[in-house]
Write a structure and sequence with these properties.
It is built from 18 helices and twelve strands. It is of the alpha+beta class. It has a five-stranded mixed beta sheet, with helices on both faces. Strands 8-7-9 form a three-stranded antiparallel beta sheet, with helices on one face. It has a two-stranded antiparallel ribbon with strand order 4-5. It holds the Pfam family SBP_bac_1.
């Protein structure tokens, strides 16, 4: 009979999401005899879609997407870490946030997850192919268009990523989305953003309408036609020797206006503890371990993780093992836009991307697209 205290966790099924959790659990078990932590994985789409309400009844530990924080707060399905961890520890987490990663899990002055993973759309290139073809990394949006005209550019065009990219174009034009309760974005900026987005997407192969970010990277490392991805949620795994047939080099985004890099939409993942767990204090202790600066800079990142603690991003050894992925893209993370987290926003996020994809594929009127987004946005606020 197993006399160990067992914790169950759920994360997403990529090397970046699953392997570091298993590795950290193994080490935690060695340091805390009598504990067993079992991690299961779900798809990236399920990671974004499946309700925390469902998962919190089944698992002690949940790796979550930050737009769930408003939902989690209202439903009291997660444990607020402020009530369990020391003020010193929480201050270290806040002070060493990668961009707004820490803030993204803070809602109504409570911390519903620890930012163990930081990500935002960044640029990626096949340096070997660029050199071979005599091409250079684009620095401006106009140069990006020129490269795309050669058929050398690809990025994710699935609905959720298209919505995040639409937010990016809006932010880069000087206006953050969802600042008003009446509309997603002003008509002037929204029309400009859509037209710029379509000008680029029209030059990208149709196959990218079925690829999420890591599928784009898999395409780039396993084939030789796409040399540059201008924006997709970063996966440092693809910059590490031995992970794939070829390695990618990651960069900040191209400039759009006034010589400033584009502003992408924050992603990442947080580690949360279910309020339904029978072993809350032990689960919190494990989360504290995973998010600590030493584990983030060693066990976590060494096993494929993409840490959420700034110490790891600035660590020379970590960067030497990833072609400076972290140092190269840190400015992008620091500038990233924090999307809404109110209770009903997931309803908007789940459906708005389809509207923008439909526009990109079938050339609908921009103002009608914005009207459809605004209608959905207002509906989401009543959820």
């Amino acid at each position: 009979m197993n006399s160990k205290i067992q914790l169950k966790g759920i994360t997403w099924g990529h090397s970046r999401g699953y392997v570091p959790m298993v590795a950290s659990a193994q080490r935690f078990e060695e340091l805390n005899l009598g504990v067993e932590i079992i991690w299961k994985k779900r798809t990236l789409q399920e990671f974004a879609d499946k309700s925390i309400m469902e998962l919190a009844h089944e698992y002690d530990l949940l790796v979550i997407d930050h737009p769930w924080t408003g939902h989690a707060s209202k439903e009291n399905m997660l444990v607020p870490f402020d009530d369990y961890l020391s003020a010193e520890y929480m201050q270290d987490q806040k002070s060493n946030s990668v961009g707004k990663s820490y803030e993204s899990y803070n809602f109504q002055n409570k911390q519903w997850a620890l930012a163990i993973d930081a990500a935002t759309p960044v640029a990626a290139s096949r340096a070997d192919l660029l050199e071979e073809m005599g091409l250079k990394i684009p620095e401006s949006f106009d140069e990006l268009i020129d490269l795309a005209k050669l058929g050398k550019v690809g990025f994710s065009l699935i609905p959720v990523d298209v919505l995040m990219s639409f937010y990016m174009f809006c932010c880069s034009l000087g206006e953050e989305p969802c600042q008003s309760k009446d509309y997603v974005i002003s008509t002037e900026v929204g029309v400009k953003a859509l037209k710029l987005f379509k000008a680029l997407s029209d030059l990208v192969d149709e196959r990218f309408y079925s690829k999420n970010p890591f599928m784009v990277y898999e395409d780039m490392v396993n084939n030789d036609d796409i040399v540059y991805c201008p924006f997709a949620y970063g996966y440092s795994n693809y910059s590490r020797h031995g992970y794939a047939k070829k390695t990618l080099t990651f960069h900040d985004l191209v400039t759009l206006t006034a010589g400033k890099p584009m502003i992408s939409t924050l992603g990442g993942a947080g580690l949360a503890v279910s309020s339904k767990s029978k072993n809350i204090e032990l689960a919190v202790k494990y989360a504290e371990f995973v998010a600590s600066p030493i584990v983030q800079s060693t066990i976590y990142v060494e096993n494929g993780g993409q840490p959420g603690h700034l110490a790891a991003w600035q660590n020379d050894v970590v960067n030497a093992n990833s072609k400076n992925y972290f140092k190269n893209t840190l400015p992008t993370l620091q500038n990233a836009y924090l999307r809404p987290r109110y209770y009903g926003h997931l309803y908007f996020q789940d459906n708005a991307g389809d509207i923008v994809v439909d526009y990109l594929r079938y050339s609908k009127d921009e103002k009608n697209v914005l009207e459809s987004l605004n209608k959905l946005y207002k509906e989401s606020q009543d959820k």
